[in-house]
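Saturday, quiet lab. Running sequence design on the structure tokens for the scaffold JK sent over.
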């Protein structure tokens, strides 16, 4: 079960469809509101809502335990779900994410981004965030990836992005959750990730009893999408060892 980042959507995981060829049953849900199909749906008030939706989905598709992971915001939701329902986890994947809560500066930046979404829509959010989402190597050499990310962001309605910003802003610190994780965990990060940099990933892995860490070369914050072959190799090696 792979949970997507902000401000993208489930289609960011398209390069990971290849895991199905290796025999894995891959589930990539879109967070509430992000699919734009039900604009009247009650937006998420907290990350607990997204985590609850993931738990409900697992029940609906009759999966008792899964390898559950996410990238960045998807990682926040993964830790939120572990806090509430560790029994759902066979293993965990934390990609380009963090366990601590927002600082005051980050909260202020979220308020600014909400204003950007309100005034300029999703395309303006993409303009604002892409320089930090993508690593320097991707921005310099892979314009196609930048266009792909822009399209993924623009597909979302601003209302979903605003609700997600508020939900992330209110999330509690999950550092103590790391200490309680008993299942195997893969902590993976792009070498050029400026939002959740490699030292942060190492520190997270050090607190998880059965963690292994992997750094993806020439990738930024969206490591799964920027370097899919290397990301998939790290993920498959982890899954094969389970
Ligand atoms: C993400 O990639 O999901 C976001 O950068 C997370 C955040 O805004 O904290």
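Result came back. Writing it out in full:
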């Amino acid at each position: 079960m792979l949970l997507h980042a902000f401000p993208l959507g489930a289609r960011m995981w398209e390069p990971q469809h290849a895991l199905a060829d290796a025999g894995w049953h891959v589930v990539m849900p879109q967070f509430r509101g992000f699919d734009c199909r039900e604009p009247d749906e009650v937006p998420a008030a907290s990350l607990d809502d997204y985590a609850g939706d993931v738990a409900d989905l697992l029940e609906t598709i009759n999966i008792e335990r899964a390898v559950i992971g996410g990238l960045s915001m998807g990682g926040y939701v993964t830790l939120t779900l572990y806090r509430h329902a560790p029994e759902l986890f066979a293993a965990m994947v934390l990609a380009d994410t963090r366990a601590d809560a927002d600082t005051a500066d980050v909260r202020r930046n979220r308020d600014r981004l909400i204003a950007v979404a309100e005034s300029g829509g999703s395309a303006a959010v993409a303009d604002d965030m892409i320089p930090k989402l993508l690593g320097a190597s991707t921005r310099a050499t892979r314009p196609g990836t930048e266009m792909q990310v822009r399209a993924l962001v623009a597909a979302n309605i601003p209302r979903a992005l605003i609700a997600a910003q508020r939900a992330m802003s209110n999330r509690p610190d999950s550092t103590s959750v790391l200490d309680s994780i008993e299942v195997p965990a893969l902590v993976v990060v792009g070498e050029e990730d400026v939002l959740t940099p490699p030292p942060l990933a190492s520190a997270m892995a050090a607190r998880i009893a059965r963690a292994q860490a992997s750094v993806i070369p020439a990738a930024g914050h969206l490591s799964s999408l920027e370097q899919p072959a290397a990301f998939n190799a790290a993920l498959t090696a982890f899954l094969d060892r389970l």
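Notes for JK: The chain has a mean pLDDT of 96. The pocket of D-malate is lined by residues 5-6, 72-73, 168, 195, 221 (CB under 6 Å). Ask whether to fix the surface positions before the next round.
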